[in-house]
Structures are given as C-alpha cells and as structure tokens.
Queue: 4 jobs
Job 1
Amino acid sequence: MLLGIFSDTHDNLPLIEKAVRFFNQQAVDFVLHAGDFVAPFSVNKIKKLKCDWKGIFGNNDGEQKGLSVISEGRIQSGPLRVKLEGKEITLVHDIMQIEPDNEPAKIIICGHTHKPQIINQGSKLVINPGECCGWLWGKASVALLELNTLKAKLYDIE
C-alpha cells in the first residue's frame, strides 16, 4: 500500500493542486495530512484526490468546525491513530504533543516545523513531509511511504 503524506498547506491553492496531482499520478492508496490546512476552502482542492484521506488540525486551523464539515469528518483533532495494512500510524501536527518513545505506533507522521525529514528513531519511523505551501523555506515538499517495506521518500513538488 502506497501512502501519500503532506502537511502545512496553509491555503497555497496552486501547490495543493500540485500535491494532489502528484499523489494521483503516483496512484497512492491513501493520504494523510498532518495539519495546518488553515481555511476550509482549501479542502476543496484536496477533495480531488482519487483515494480516501484523513487529516488533523494544526495550530493554524482556527476554523475547525468548517474544516470538519467541508472534509465530511476526515479532519479531526490529533493525535490521530490509524491502522492501514495492519500498520499502526500516529498522525500528530507537532511531535512535541506526544512522547515518541511511548507511542505504540511504529510510524509517526508529523508536521509543524515545515522541515522535511525522515528519521529512524529506535524502533520508530518518524516522517515530516515538510511544507506543502513553500511559504517558510521556499520549497514545497510531500512524502510517500510504501507500507509493506516501510520505505519512505521525500519529493519536491515545485
């Protein structure tokens, strides 16, 4: 199962469209968003994914009710624990919201820092796809994770 991962879209509609197009071209099976959508209207672009998806609220998601409604409940409060292909995943906006060593999930997906990184931390795989918006560091990025092999890779989408 191929998992698409992105975060910190911050209303950048052209780059959200690019990320969605990239995920659709890669034929991902599921997508996770680690928060900071910002405004509900941005979710309309995400709804063009050809697969199911889930997301969590980030610290810049002030209109949570609107985000939840427009996403048909796919955006929720984090941390969110999901199970895909028998693998447990913790989705959290800011990794400081959890204690990674005490998390039962072996896969932790986070955002918030806008810095893309993939870290093998003990028995945990921690993935931050970076910022899809490109506002802070000037580079828009997403990640893919093959759940069967736990191989993750970062991609620039600009």
Job 2
Amino acid sequence: MKSAIRIVMALGLVFGLSACGGGMVSRNGSAPGAVTVASKNPVVMVPKYDVQGIRVSVPRDLAVSEANMFYPIADIVWRGDPLGDRYNQVQAILEEGFARGTAAMNNGPKVMLDVELTRFHSLTEKTRYTVGGVHSVHFILSVRDAATGAVIEKPRKIWADVKGSGGTRAIGEEAMGRTMKVVIVEHLAEVIRQELSLPMPESTTPTSRNGALATGTVGALY
C-alpha cells in the first residue's frame, strides 16, 4: 500500500513539474498568446501630435545633494557631468531626451509640451561603482495647442525610472561610451514616444506625407 502511495505521489510531482515548465517564460521570450512585432497582427505606436516645441522647467527649490553616499536624501542627485549647476545640467538632459523622442512626431494637431521636473535622482559615485541602482526621473507633462495655448492634455505625473548598472559592468559600459547620461537620454526619448503615441494595428497605420510610416517604437516602461 505504501509503495503504491509513493508511486502516485512521484507521478504527481513529475506531472506538476512538467506543467510548470511548459508555462515558464524566459526573460527574452513571450508568453503564449502575447502579441509581438513578428505576430500576424503587429502593433505599432503612432504619434498623436505634431510637436512644435518643448518647454522644460527645473524648479530651483528642488534640493540638490553632492554627498557621496549610497542614497542621499534629495530631489536632484547627478554625477554624470563635472561639478557645476546641477539644475542646468539635468534640464539639458531632459531637453535632449524629449527632443530625440519627438523628432519624428509631425502628424496630427500642432502642440507644445510643458515639462516640469519633480525628481532626478541618479547614482552617486559610491553606488555607481559598487551595487548600481535606479536612475529615478519624475516629471509633470502637459500638452497645449501650439497656436492658442489651450490645454489638450491636463498635467499628469510620469515616472521615467531606468536601471543603472554598477561595479565592473558600469565601468565596462562607460569604456564603450554608454554613460549614465546616454542611458537616461535614451530612456526619456522612449518614454515620451510612448506617452504621446497610440497603439494601432500595422494594417491601419497612417503614413506621413513622404509615404513613410509615422511610427514610434514598441517598448516597455519602467
């Protein structure tokens, strides 16, 4: 009787592991039924607006820290530029990222973007060259009619956090030119594309005046 029970339990364990294995998805894989760019119904991100300009503000009452510790308590922590005016430095990063992300947005209503930074907490030297962490960038985005200034999209808070490498990996990335600034600019460009685009099946995607698809990219937010 005990032998029979052991056999039944063993078979149940084998079948259970098989079921788990069949449902697992690797980090580079897709879950069953998920829509991907290679599927029969691909989805692209189509810009909603023709972005005429971007106004980025970094309030001077945001607290800045130069402390070389794992996690300074401050609104702005930035070490990717030489010591200087951190407000101007992070403003330039936001302007570059948003300009890159909206460069191809030339379809739809003409708009201006208003962006107010509320947090730019990157990695200190101590964190960068040990454990790594998260580049935490938060801002408020609003969309206005370029001609009248009327609000088209009310202000909303956006978190644009992205992982920051640490230790030997960070050193290796920097040696190849992939600095903290490059990572943040790329991520901001992707975030603003996602925020100002709509998903649409490729078969119904409108084209721009020169016949090219007016699309952004398909990607995940952090």
Job 3
Amino acid sequence: MGIHAGSRVSIEYTLRLEDGSIVESNVGEEACEYTQGREEIIPGLEQGLEGLDVGDVKEIRIPPELAYGPVLPDAFYEVDKELVPAGAWVVGTELVARDSSGRERQVRVHEVREETIVIDANHPLAGKTLIFDVRVLAVR
C-alpha cells in the first residue's frame, strides 16, 4: 500500500547539501514522525516519500522551490550597530530578533559596515538544493 495521504510515517534520514556537507541526521537517534499530506514536513520531501513502503531506501533531491524557497532580497535588513550586541559584529553570527509582529526569528549577520549591520532573515537553507538519504521505518 505504501505511504499515502493520512499515513503516519516514521523515517530516518541524513540531510546533506550538494557539496556533500551534512546538515543534520537522525540515524541511530529518534525517528522523524509525520502524517503524509498534512504539510508537517517540506513539500519536496513529502512528495519524494509518496508511495514508498517500510524498508525502502531512497535519495530524494529537493530544489529550493520545494524546500525553503529562494533567497529573498527583501529579507535583508540594515540596522544601526547599536541595536546589535558588539560581540555579534561578525559575519555569520546567528541572532534571535523580533519581527514587527513580535515573533522571534533566527537571523544571521550578513555584512558589517562602518555604522550599520546587514541582517539576513532568510531561512539558513533558502536557495539550496537539499539531498535527503531516507529509510522508511514504519507506515501506519
């Protein structure tokens, strides 16, 4: 019968990028559980798992459009340095910021200028093709 809409699915996976770097893995740890068709995981992974059965192993390549989307130019913000802790004035530093609605978001320092800092609020995996090596552990 395989994975279909409404199936409760358990998988183990390793997520890597095209350069081979591993982003995360749950192999040997707690399984990832989700319900197929409920948008609990990224669309490309859900599509790639459709029809698989217990024990199946598959490499699933997911373009940015079916993962975390493209890098959005309007997700870069220039702020006064005084709004960022001095110890965080380093490109790549991850920070937690509040958006205009008060929600917390993870952001990164993209560029340090003389009087300002450019913050990148894109998802860290935006614009990247993701490669999941997946094993289906259970389908209920």
Job 4
Amino acid sequence: MTTAPGHPRPREPRPSADAPPEGPAPAGPGPGGAPDVFDPRLYARAVPYDRYRVLRDHHPVAWQGEPPVLGWPAGPGFWAVTRHADVTAVLKDAAVYSSCLGATQIRDPDPDDLPFIRRMMLNQDPSPSSRPRSNGGDTTDHGRLRRLVSRAFTPRRVARFEALARRRARTLLAGAVAEARAGDGGCDVVAAVTDDYAVLNLADLLGVPPSDRGLLLDWTHRVIGYQDPDEAGEPVVGADGRPVNPRSPAMLRDMFAYAGELAAHKRRHPGDDVLTTLATTPEVTAPELEMCFFLLTVAGNDTVRAAAPGGLLALAEHPGEQRRLRSGEAPLAGAVEELLRWHPPVLSFRRTAARDTELAGQRIRRGDKVVVFHAAAHRDERAFADPDRLDLTRSPNPHVAFGDGPHVCLGAHFARLQLTVLYEELLTATTAVGLAEPPARLVSHFINGLKSLRLTLTA
C-alpha cells in the first residue's frame, strides 16, 4: 500500500516455513486499498488492467508485498510504479534508479550471485555514481558493451536477415493455414508459427547451427518461464532447501559452456553472424561473450516470442481494426506500434534506489526496490487518449514496450522488423483471422507470454 510522504513504509511479515499451502491468487485489494499486482498467477488469467487502473488513480507508487508463491520464498516488498510519466522517469534516470545494485528482476538474487549477474549489460549502469565499490559490477562497461554489440548488426546483415525472416514467415503461415483447412478451421499459432519464427530467426542472427536450435527455446523456458510449471517444471532446490535462481551461475553452466564452444568454432570457421563478430572482436572478453550470448538468447527470443502472438490475438479480438489494416486504412508501421502498446512483451522491470528520493510524492529509501509496470503505463489516459481502445492509427504513441533511457532494447529494430514481416505475410496468407478459444497465458509478472493461441485462419 502507499504511505504518506515521510512516513515509514509498511513491511510485510515473512511467512514461516510452516505456512499453509498456497491457494489461488488473491482476488481483492490488500491493506490500504492498493491491489496486489505481484502474484504471477494473476497474469495467467489476464493482465490485471483493472488493478493497474486503481493503482494509477489512487496509489501511483504503491508498496507491494512479496509473499511466497509457487515454491519461491518471500521477499522484502517493492514499490510498484504504474503511471506513464513516472515509469519513463525511472527508466531514464539510471543515477537514481539503478539496474546494477539489485539487478532487474523483482526477486532478489542471491548476494553471492550479484557480481556474476552484473556482468550482463542489462544489469549494469551507465553512470558510475551508483556503482558498488566492493563486490563487483563495473558499470562503466555498459556503454562499451552496447557499442560493441550494436556494431555486430551491420546493414548487410539486416538485409539478409529480413529476407530469411520473410521466407520463414511465409512457410510457417502456409503450414498453419493448411493445418486449419485440414481440421476444424483452427490452429494453435504459438505452436505452428510464432515459437519457431522467433527462435529460428534468432538462431540465424546468432549463427547457431540448425541441430542446436532447440537449445535456445529450452534455455528461454528455463529462464523466462521459471514460475510456470508448464514451461520449466518444478524449481531446482539447492542444498539449503531453497529454489535455485534460474539466472545463477550454476543454472547457466551448460549455456555458457555451449557459448564458449560455439565461439571457438566461429573463430575457426567464421560466418556472417553476430556471434562470429563478437567472438573475433578482441575487446570482448570470454565472460562478456557468454553474457552477451545469454542476453541475446533469452531477451532476443522472448521479446518476439511474446509480442507476435499478442499482436495476432489483438487482431483476432478486434475484427474492425483487422479490416482497417487489411484495407490499408491503417498503415502497417503504425499498427505495429499500437499492437506493441496493446500487448507489450515485457510486463515489468525492476530498479533499485541508489539514494533516498521521491517519486509522485512518495518517499523512497536508498536500497528500496522500484518496479515499473510497462503494461500499466500503456493504459494511462494521462499519456494516451482512450487507452483501452485498440486504434491501429494511434499517433502519437509513446509506448515503452522496448523500455526507455540508457537500457532501451538493443534489438528493438530487429523485433519491429520481425513483427512487420510476420504481419505482412499474415495479410497475404489469410483473408481473416478470428479467436477459436481463449489463449493459455504464461504464469509470470515479467513476460507477457502466451503458451497457446488457437485462431481460426481463413484463406
């Protein structure tokens, strides 16, 4: 819940190990009227836009408890930020809201893992002001690593990538249409199209051999879907009886070993791919290459893997807007942006206050977790006219689907390119798409994922 400026924030008691088994996700507001938006099980039913509205209107910076859930232990709590202006303010101010101090996920990492986690660009700060001085995480590497990775995306590589993505989209959609025609008119487009489209495009970009491409999806399930038993299975339990963080060194050992082996192969047999560029760049150390591979594998895959079916779902649920897109009344470039606003691939990102500060009138202490909710910001009427209406011609459209500030998504251009190509090919392959049955959603407060989406495909 929120508290008046200057008052101590409430602290949620940590349930004992003898707490009763967890029931369904809480249905109502917590103390003080601020609804819970932490429980990942909420998101398996639907993104909680009604709760976000209550927070934006009455508790724009709201204290949230972190009770134990799905076998994962309790945490200390965090501030939920839901208004668009406040979300962008946090994302842009790395000096006050650090990605390095506690990394970028709501759950706190093991302190022993922090030096390792801080080797990733995502968990580094461009400003040295908030950098830890004693236990790792040289945040001044952030800009250097972003520049090195950006150089790997050459214009020639982009052009080749677009041609490959288009052929792949055309082939996958043709298969989905054939499956629908042979059956009852419906097809699970996650299984038939979007999962393969995202992971195979990423594999082409990185230079992963065809025989190894299933590994990329397996690693994504493990890291992104760790709260969902369908995606990652039961948590791995450590010697202390607690679940092991899927982003810990122990859980990523096989991925890093593979990255090292593939990099060595690329040095002997260079190709026209991103991993060859990174592996043959002297400034990139072996640990940095491993972390770049991790970031590109997981973030590069799941951004499109979440956004693509979300866009298809939006079109299926809004036949009027779909007709505007097909007729050309709604240009595709703007439609891509509105579909990203409507279904952002990322639901939330965490920062840590590097010093005492104030946001929207709420005092925040140094060390507090501050979590921005992208999906909540996208429905803020202070930033968007009629935000609960899908409008494929919306302009301006200041969504934050790819973040903002120094950590804006490095691969945003490639994600937009893939989505544009997929939607173009969809319009060619079909005359209409509709919803055959409600989607199955990922159990996650981080990624806005769909596990299945059965659509009717009319050609």
